[in-house]
Amino acid sequence: MKKSVLLLIVMSPIWVFSQQKITLTSCYELAAKNYPLAKQTALLQQKSTFEIDAMNKAKLPKIDLNAQATYQSAVTQLPISIPNITITPLNKDQYRATVDVNQLIYNGGMIEANSKLKTAQTLTQQQQVAVNLYTLKSRINYSYLMILLWQDQNLLLLDKKNTIVSKIKEVKSAVKNGAVLPASEQVLEAELLKLKQALTENSFQRTKELQNLASLTKTTFEVNTVLEKPRTIDSNGTRPEIQFFDLQQAQIDASKEVISKSNLPKLNAFGQAGYGNPGLNMLNNSFEGFYIVGLKMNWTIFDWDKSKTDKQALDIAKEIVSTDKETFETNNQMQLAELQTEIEKMLIIIQTDDEIIQLREKVVQSSDSQLRNGVITASDYVTELNHLFEAKTNQKVHETQLELAQINYQTTKGIN
User: Fold this and answer.
1) Are 277 and 95 in contact (CB under 8 A)?
2) 207 Cβ neighbours under 8 A, 6+ residues apart
3) Do the beta carbons of residue 183 and residue 382 sit within 8 Å?
4) What pLDDT shows up at residue 416?
5) What is the pLDDT of residue 9?
6) How far apart are CA 1 and CA 266, in angstroms?
7) Strands 226-227 and 21-22
8) pTM (predicted TM-score)
Protein backbone atom coordinates (compact mmCIF):
# COMPACT_ATOMS: atom_id res chain seq x y z
CA MET A 1 0.00 0.00 0.00
CA LYS A 2 2.83 2.40 0.90
CA LYS A 3 4.56 1.60 -2.39
CA SER A 4 1.38 2.45 -4.29
CA VAL A 5 1.00 5.77 -2.51
CA LEU A 6 4.66 6.57 -3.13
CA LEU A 7 4.25 5.76 -6.83
CA LEU A 8 1.27 8.10 -7.08
CA ILE A 9 3.22 10.89 -5.40
CA VAL A 10 6.14 10.41 -7.78
CA MET A 11 3.91 10.22 -10.87
CA SER A 12 1.65 13.13 -9.88
CA PRO A 13 4.03 15.94 -10.95
CA ILE A 14 4.53 14.22 -14.31
CA TRP A 15 0.76 14.10 -14.86
CA VAL A 16 0.38 17.76 -13.96
CA PHE A 17 3.29 18.70 -16.22
CA SER A 18 1.75 16.81 -19.13
CA GLN A 19 -1.54 18.68 -18.86
CA GLN A 20 -2.38 20.78 -21.88
CA LYS A 21 -2.89 24.45 -21.04
CA ILE A 22 -4.72 26.88 -23.29
CA THR A 23 -5.80 30.51 -23.11
CA LEU A 24 -8.70 32.35 -24.68
CA THR A 25 -6.27 34.26 -26.91
CA SER A 26 -4.71 31.02 -28.16
CA CYS A 27 -8.20 29.76 -29.06
CA TYR A 28 -8.75 32.91 -31.14
CA GLU A 29 -5.45 32.30 -32.91
CA LEU A 30 -6.23 28.63 -33.56
CA ALA A 31 -9.62 29.51 -35.04
CA ALA A 32 -8.11 32.21 -37.27
CA LYS A 33 -5.53 29.70 -38.48
CA ASN A 34 -7.41 26.39 -38.69
CA TYR A 35 -11.07 27.23 -39.34
CA PRO A 36 -11.96 26.25 -42.96
CA LEU A 37 -13.07 29.79 -43.79
CA ALA A 38 -9.60 31.10 -42.93
CA LYS A 39 -8.15 29.32 -45.99
CA GLN A 40 -10.07 31.69 -48.27
CA THR A 41 -7.73 34.59 -47.47
CA ALA A 42 -4.77 32.92 -49.18
CA LEU A 43 -6.97 31.53 -51.96
CA LEU A 44 -8.37 34.98 -52.74
CA GLN A 45 -4.84 36.37 -52.94
CA GLN A 46 -3.77 33.62 -55.33
CA LYS A 47 -6.86 34.21 -57.47
CA SER A 48 -6.15 37.95 -57.60
CA THR A 49 -2.51 37.36 -58.57
CA PHE A 50 -3.52 35.19 -61.50
CA GLU A 51 -6.22 37.63 -62.65
CA ILE A 52 -3.88 40.66 -62.52
CA ASP A 53 -1.22 38.66 -64.34
CA ALA A 54 -3.80 37.85 -67.04
CA MET A 55 -4.66 41.58 -67.35
CA ASN A 56 -1.00 42.49 -67.81
CA LYS A 57 -0.76 39.98 -70.67
CA ALA A 58 -2.70 42.52 -72.74
CA LYS A 59 0.51 44.59 -72.93
CA LEU A 60 2.20 41.79 -74.86
CA PRO A 61 1.84 41.39 -78.64
CA LYS A 62 -1.15 39.39 -79.79
CA ILE A 63 -0.30 36.98 -82.59
CA ASP A 64 -2.95 35.19 -84.64
CA LEU A 65 -2.51 32.65 -87.41
CA ASN A 66 -5.33 32.63 -89.97
CA ALA A 67 -5.92 30.52 -93.07
CA GLN A 68 -8.84 30.22 -95.42
CA ALA A 69 -9.80 28.68 -98.74
CA THR A 70 -12.91 29.86 -100.57
CA TYR A 71 -14.83 29.33 -103.76
CA GLN A 72 -17.10 32.05 -104.99
CA SER A 73 -19.72 32.21 -107.70
CA ALA A 74 -18.36 35.36 -109.30
CA VAL A 75 -15.19 37.44 -109.28
CA THR A 76 -14.38 41.06 -110.03
CA GLN A 77 -14.03 41.77 -113.76
CA LEU A 78 -13.62 44.90 -115.86
CA PRO A 79 -16.99 45.95 -117.25
CA ILE A 80 -15.41 46.82 -120.61
CA SER A 81 -13.11 45.09 -123.06
CA ILE A 82 -9.93 46.76 -124.25
CA PRO A 83 -8.74 45.93 -127.79
CA ASN A 84 -5.50 43.99 -128.03
CA ILE A 85 -5.40 43.58 -124.22
CA THR A 86 -6.40 40.40 -122.50
CA ILE A 87 -6.95 40.48 -118.76
CA THR A 88 -7.13 37.10 -117.10
CA PRO A 89 -10.00 37.03 -114.57
CA LEU A 90 -9.38 36.00 -111.00
CA ASN A 91 -9.86 32.39 -110.05
CA LYS A 92 -13.10 31.61 -108.32
CA ASP A 93 -11.16 29.45 -105.86
CA GLN A 94 -9.00 31.66 -103.65
CA TYR A 95 -6.49 30.90 -100.87
CA ARG A 96 -4.96 32.98 -98.13
CA ALA A 97 -2.79 32.39 -95.01
CA THR A 98 -1.78 35.26 -92.75
CA VAL A 99 0.01 36.01 -89.49
CA ASP A 100 -1.59 38.98 -87.68
CA VAL A 101 0.24 40.86 -84.96
CA ASN A 102 -1.42 43.48 -82.73
CA GLN A 103 0.55 45.48 -80.17
CA LEU A 104 -1.09 47.74 -77.62
CA ILE A 105 0.71 51.07 -77.44
CA TYR A 106 -1.59 53.16 -75.28
CA ASN A 107 -5.03 52.49 -73.78
CA GLY A 108 -5.39 55.38 -71.35
CA GLY A 109 -4.09 53.39 -68.34
CA MET A 110 -7.02 50.93 -68.40
CA ILE A 111 -4.84 47.94 -67.49
CA GLU A 112 -3.38 49.68 -64.45
CA ALA A 113 -6.81 50.95 -63.40
CA ASN A 114 -8.35 47.47 -63.69
CA SER A 115 -5.43 45.99 -61.76
CA LYS A 116 -6.00 48.48 -58.94
CA LEU A 117 -9.72 47.65 -59.00
CA LYS A 118 -8.97 43.92 -58.78
CA THR A 119 -6.61 44.55 -55.85
CA ALA A 120 -9.28 46.62 -54.10
CA GLN A 121 -11.87 43.87 -54.69
CA THR A 122 -9.53 41.24 -53.27
CA LEU A 123 -8.79 43.29 -50.15
CA THR A 124 -12.53 43.78 -49.61
CA GLN A 125 -13.22 40.06 -50.01
CA GLN A 126 -10.37 39.17 -47.65
CA GLN A 127 -11.71 41.62 -45.09
CA GLN A 128 -15.14 40.00 -45.40
CA VAL A 129 -13.45 36.72 -44.43
CA ALA A 130 -11.91 38.50 -41.43
CA VAL A 131 -15.36 39.79 -40.44
CA ASN A 132 -16.86 36.30 -40.65
CA LEU A 133 -13.99 34.85 -38.63
CA TYR A 134 -14.42 37.55 -36.00
CA THR A 135 -17.97 36.36 -35.32
CA LEU A 136 -16.44 33.09 -34.09
CA LYS A 137 -14.99 34.95 -31.10
CA SER A 138 -18.40 35.24 -29.42
CA ARG A 139 -19.00 31.49 -29.81
CA ILE A 140 -15.49 30.76 -28.52
CA ASN A 141 -16.10 33.09 -25.55
CA TYR A 142 -19.24 31.18 -24.59
CA SER A 143 -17.73 27.69 -24.87
CA TYR A 144 -14.54 28.71 -23.09
CA LEU A 145 -16.34 30.23 -20.10
CA MET A 146 -18.85 27.39 -19.90
CA ILE A 147 -15.93 24.98 -19.54
CA LEU A 148 -14.55 27.15 -16.75
CA LEU A 149 -17.97 27.12 -15.09
CA TRP A 150 -18.15 23.32 -15.22
CA GLN A 151 -14.63 23.19 -13.74
CA ASP A 152 -15.65 25.48 -10.87
CA GLN A 153 -18.83 23.52 -10.25
CA ASN A 154 -16.81 20.31 -10.21
CA LEU A 155 -14.64 21.74 -7.42
CA LEU A 156 -17.76 22.70 -5.46
CA LEU A 157 -19.19 19.21 -5.90
CA LEU A 158 -15.95 17.62 -4.72
CA ASP A 159 -15.87 19.94 -1.70
CA LYS A 160 -19.46 19.01 -0.87
CA LYS A 161 -18.62 15.33 -1.37
CA ASN A 162 -15.74 15.59 1.09
CA THR A 163 -18.07 17.23 3.60
CA ILE A 164 -20.66 14.46 3.21
CA VAL A 165 -18.02 11.71 3.48
CA SER A 166 -16.64 13.28 6.64
CA LYS A 167 -20.15 13.64 8.06
CA ILE A 168 -20.95 9.98 7.29
CA LYS A 169 -17.96 8.93 9.39
CA GLU A 170 -19.19 11.04 12.28
CA VAL A 171 -22.74 9.72 11.99
CA LYS A 172 -21.55 6.09 11.86
CA SER A 173 -19.74 6.63 15.14
CA ALA A 174 -22.82 8.31 16.61
CA VAL A 175 -25.07 5.44 15.44
CA LYS A 176 -22.80 2.94 17.19
CA ASN A 177 -23.05 4.97 20.36
CA GLY A 178 -26.82 5.20 19.98
CA ALA A 179 -26.77 8.98 19.79
CA VAL A 180 -28.19 9.09 16.26
CA LEU A 181 -30.71 6.92 14.46
CA PRO A 182 -29.44 4.64 11.60
CA ALA A 183 -31.71 6.50 9.16
CA SER A 184 -29.42 9.53 9.40
CA GLU A 185 -26.55 7.53 7.91
CA GLN A 186 -28.79 6.31 5.09
CA VAL A 187 -29.87 9.87 4.27
CA LEU A 188 -26.24 10.92 3.94
CA GLU A 189 -25.38 7.85 1.85
CA ALA A 190 -28.23 8.69 -0.53
CA GLU A 191 -26.98 12.26 -0.77
CA LEU A 192 -23.50 10.94 -1.57
CA LEU A 193 -24.92 8.90 -4.47
CA LYS A 194 -26.67 12.00 -5.79
CA LEU A 195 -23.34 13.81 -5.67
CA LYS A 196 -21.70 11.06 -7.71
CA GLN A 197 -24.44 11.46 -10.31
CA ALA A 198 -23.91 15.22 -10.35
CA LEU A 199 -20.14 14.76 -10.78
CA THR A 200 -20.72 12.36 -13.69
CA GLU A 201 -23.13 14.77 -15.39
CA ASN A 202 -20.74 17.65 -14.79
CA SER A 203 -17.88 15.71 -16.37
CA PHE A 204 -19.90 14.91 -19.50
CA GLN A 205 -21.09 18.54 -19.80
CA ARG A 206 -17.51 19.79 -19.62
CA THR A 207 -16.38 17.22 -22.22
CA LYS A 208 -19.22 18.26 -24.52
CA GLU A 209 -18.31 21.94 -24.30
CA LEU A 210 -14.63 21.10 -24.77
CA GLN A 211 -15.56 19.27 -27.98
CA ASN A 212 -17.46 22.36 -29.15
CA LEU A 213 -14.37 24.47 -28.50
CA ALA A 214 -12.24 21.94 -30.38
CA SER A 215 -14.63 22.14 -33.35
CA LEU A 216 -14.47 25.94 -33.42
CA THR A 217 -10.67 25.95 -33.29
CA LYS A 218 -10.27 22.84 -35.46
CA THR A 219 -7.83 21.28 -33.01
CA THR A 220 -7.75 18.47 -30.46
CA PHE A 221 -7.86 19.03 -26.72
CA GLU A 222 -7.01 16.45 -24.09
CA VAL A 223 -9.67 15.58 -21.53
CA ASN A 224 -7.56 17.02 -18.73
CA THR A 225 -6.84 20.26 -20.62
CA VAL A 226 -6.51 23.21 -18.25
CA LEU A 227 -8.15 26.48 -19.32
CA GLU A 228 -6.56 29.58 -17.89
CA LYS A 229 -8.79 32.36 -16.62
CA PRO A 230 -9.20 34.99 -19.33
CA ARG A 231 -7.86 38.45 -18.69
CA THR A 232 -9.95 41.44 -19.61
CA ILE A 233 -8.05 44.44 -20.93
CA ASP A 234 -9.05 47.89 -22.02
CA SER A 235 -8.80 47.25 -25.75
CA ASN A 236 -8.43 50.14 -28.17
CA GLY A 237 -8.74 47.95 -31.22
CA THR A 238 -11.19 48.45 -34.04
CA ARG A 239 -13.79 46.07 -35.35
CA PRO A 240 -12.93 44.46 -38.71
CA GLU A 241 -16.28 45.65 -40.03
CA ILE A 242 -15.04 49.26 -39.94
CA GLN A 243 -12.10 48.44 -42.21
CA PHE A 244 -14.46 46.41 -44.40
CA PHE A 245 -16.65 49.48 -45.00
CA ASP A 246 -13.57 51.61 -45.73
CA LEU A 247 -12.31 49.05 -48.24
CA GLN A 248 -15.72 48.97 -49.92
CA GLN A 249 -15.50 52.71 -50.47
CA ALA A 250 -11.94 52.36 -51.79
CA GLN A 251 -13.22 49.74 -54.22
CA ILE A 252 -15.92 52.15 -55.43
CA ASP A 253 -13.26 54.84 -55.98
CA ALA A 254 -11.23 52.35 -58.02
CA SER A 255 -14.33 51.56 -60.12
CA LYS A 256 -14.80 55.28 -60.83
CA GLU A 257 -11.17 55.46 -61.98
CA VAL A 258 -11.79 52.63 -64.45
CA ILE A 259 -14.80 54.51 -65.85
CA SER A 260 -12.71 57.68 -66.26
CA LYS A 261 -10.06 55.75 -68.20
CA SER A 262 -12.56 53.98 -70.46
CA ASN A 263 -13.18 57.03 -72.67
CA LEU A 264 -9.53 57.94 -73.24
CA PRO A 265 -8.03 57.28 -76.70
CA LYS A 266 -6.55 53.88 -77.41
CA LEU A 267 -3.70 53.31 -79.84
CA ASN A 268 -2.63 49.98 -81.32
CA ALA A 269 0.04 49.00 -83.85
CA PHE A 270 -0.75 46.14 -86.16
CA GLY A 271 0.95 44.14 -88.84
CA GLN A 272 -0.04 41.37 -91.19
CA ALA A 273 2.14 39.09 -93.27
CA GLY A 274 0.63 36.56 -95.62
CA TYR A 275 0.75 34.38 -98.67
CA GLY A 276 -2.19 33.79 -100.96
CA ASN A 277 -3.88 33.84 -104.30
CA PRO A 278 -4.62 36.58 -104.95
CA GLY A 279 -2.29 38.71 -102.82
CA LEU A 280 -2.69 42.45 -102.41
CA ASN A 281 -2.56 42.92 -106.18
CA MET A 282 -6.02 41.81 -107.24
CA LEU A 283 -4.96 41.80 -110.89
CA ASN A 284 -2.23 39.23 -110.31
CA ASN A 285 -3.90 35.84 -110.53
CA SER A 286 -1.13 33.88 -108.81
CA PHE A 287 0.25 33.07 -105.36
CA GLU A 288 2.36 35.81 -103.81
CA GLY A 289 3.49 37.03 -100.41
CA PHE A 290 2.42 40.34 -98.90
CA TYR A 291 2.47 42.40 -95.71
CA ILE A 292 0.63 45.32 -94.14
CA VAL A 293 1.70 47.47 -91.16
CA GLY A 294 -0.09 50.39 -89.54
CA LEU A 295 -1.51 52.18 -86.55
CA LYS A 296 -5.09 52.22 -85.34
CA MET A 297 -6.63 54.68 -82.91
CA ASN A 298 -10.00 54.44 -81.21
CA TRP A 299 -11.50 57.26 -79.19
CA THR A 300 -15.03 57.37 -77.86
CA ILE A 301 -15.74 61.08 -78.04
CA PHE A 302 -19.39 60.97 -77.00
CA ASP A 303 -21.00 58.16 -75.00
CA TRP A 304 -24.36 59.82 -74.27
CA ASP A 305 -23.24 60.59 -70.69
CA LYS A 306 -22.99 56.88 -69.88
CA SER A 307 -19.77 57.43 -67.89
CA LYS A 308 -21.35 60.29 -65.98
CA THR A 309 -24.40 58.15 -65.12
CA ASP A 310 -22.22 55.24 -64.03
CA LYS A 311 -20.24 57.53 -61.72
CA GLN A 312 -23.45 58.92 -60.23
CA ALA A 313 -24.59 55.36 -59.49
CA LEU A 314 -21.25 54.68 -57.77
CA ASP A 315 -21.61 57.85 -55.70
CA ILE A 316 -24.95 56.57 -54.44
CA ALA A 317 -23.36 53.18 -53.71
CA LYS A 318 -20.73 55.00 -51.67
CA GLU A 319 -23.44 56.75 -49.66
CA ILE A 320 -25.10 53.37 -49.03
CA VAL A 321 -21.81 52.03 -47.64
CA SER A 322 -21.56 55.13 -45.40
CA THR A 323 -25.05 54.48 -44.01
CA ASP A 324 -24.16 50.81 -43.45
CA LYS A 325 -21.07 51.90 -41.52
CA GLU A 326 -23.05 54.40 -39.48
CA THR A 327 -25.73 51.79 -38.73
CA PHE A 328 -23.11 49.31 -37.59
CA GLU A 329 -21.45 51.87 -35.31
CA THR A 330 -24.82 52.78 -33.79
CA ASN A 331 -25.76 49.16 -33.13
CA ASN A 332 -22.29 48.47 -31.78
CA GLN A 333 -22.59 51.31 -29.28
CA MET A 334 -25.98 49.97 -28.20
CA GLN A 335 -24.47 46.51 -27.61
CA LEU A 336 -21.63 48.03 -25.58
CA ALA A 337 -24.12 49.98 -23.46
CA GLU A 338 -26.17 46.82 -22.81
CA LEU A 339 -23.07 44.85 -21.87
CA GLN A 340 -21.88 47.62 -19.56
CA THR A 341 -25.26 47.55 -17.80
CA GLU A 342 -24.99 43.75 -17.52
CA ILE A 343 -21.51 44.08 -15.98
CA GLU A 344 -22.69 46.59 -13.40
CA LYS A 345 -25.71 44.43 -12.55
CA MET A 346 -23.62 41.28 -12.06
CA LEU A 347 -21.14 43.11 -9.82
CA ILE A 348 -23.98 44.06 -7.46
CA ILE A 349 -25.47 40.54 -7.56
CA ILE A 350 -22.11 38.91 -6.79
CA GLN A 351 -21.67 41.22 -3.81
CA THR A 352 -25.03 40.01 -2.52
CA ASP A 353 -23.95 36.41 -3.18
CA ASP A 354 -21.07 36.89 -0.74
CA GLU A 355 -23.48 37.99 1.95
CA ILE A 356 -25.83 35.08 1.27
CA ILE A 357 -22.97 32.56 1.44
CA GLN A 358 -21.72 33.97 4.74
CA LEU A 359 -25.19 33.61 6.25
CA ARG A 360 -25.64 30.10 4.83
CA GLU A 361 -22.26 29.00 6.20
CA LYS A 362 -23.33 30.12 9.70
CA VAL A 363 -26.59 28.18 9.35
CA VAL A 364 -24.69 25.03 8.25
CA GLN A 365 -22.28 25.36 11.17
CA SER A 366 -25.24 25.60 13.53
CA SER A 367 -26.94 22.63 11.83
CA ASP A 368 -23.75 20.61 12.13
CA SER A 369 -23.68 21.20 15.89
CA GLN A 370 -27.37 20.39 16.19
CA LEU A 371 -26.95 17.15 14.23
CA ARG A 372 -24.16 16.04 16.53
CA ASN A 373 -26.35 16.70 19.54
CA GLY A 374 -29.33 14.94 17.98
CA VAL A 375 -31.44 18.10 17.89
CA ILE A 376 -32.10 17.83 14.11
CA THR A 377 -32.12 14.96 11.66
CA ALA A 378 -29.63 14.30 8.87
CA SER A 379 -32.30 15.37 6.37
CA ASP A 380 -32.46 18.79 8.01
CA TYR A 381 -28.69 19.05 7.88
CA VAL A 382 -28.56 18.01 4.19
CA THR A 383 -31.24 20.60 3.37
CA GLU A 384 -29.16 23.39 4.86
CA LEU A 385 -25.99 22.05 3.21
CA ASN A 386 -27.78 22.03 -0.16
CA HIS A 387 -28.84 25.64 0.41
CA LEU A 388 -25.20 26.57 0.98
CA PHE A 389 -24.09 24.63 -2.11
CA GLU A 390 -26.84 26.30 -4.17
CA ALA A 391 -25.69 29.72 -2.98
CA LYS A 392 -22.07 28.96 -3.94
CA THR A 393 -23.20 27.56 -7.30
CA ASN A 394 -25.23 30.67 -7.99
CA GLN A 395 -22.20 32.79 -7.20
CA LYS A 396 -20.08 30.81 -9.68
CA VAL A 397 -22.78 31.19 -12.34
CA HIS A 398 -22.97 34.93 -11.71
CA GLU A 399 -19.17 35.23 -11.80
CA THR A 400 -19.16 33.39 -15.13
CA GLN A 401 -21.90 35.68 -16.44
CA LEU A 402 -19.81 38.66 -15.37
CA GLU A 403 -16.68 37.30 -17.07
CA LEU A 404 -18.66 36.50 -20.22
CA ALA A 405 -20.11 40.02 -20.29
CA GLN A 406 -16.65 41.53 -19.80
CA ILE A 407 -15.09 39.39 -22.53
CA ASN A 408 -17.99 40.05 -24.90
CA TYR A 409 -17.63 43.78 -24.16
CA GLN A 410 -14.01 43.53 -25.16
CA THR A 411 -14.89 41.54 -28.28
CA THR A 412 -17.70 43.93 -29.24
CA LYS A 413 -15.42 46.92 -28.81
CA GLY A 414 -12.68 45.33 -30.89
CA ILE A 415 -9.59 43.27 -30.18
CA ASN A 416 -6.23 44.07 -31.73
Assistant:
1) yes
2) 223
3) no
4) 57
5) 34
6) 95
7) parallel
8) 0.83
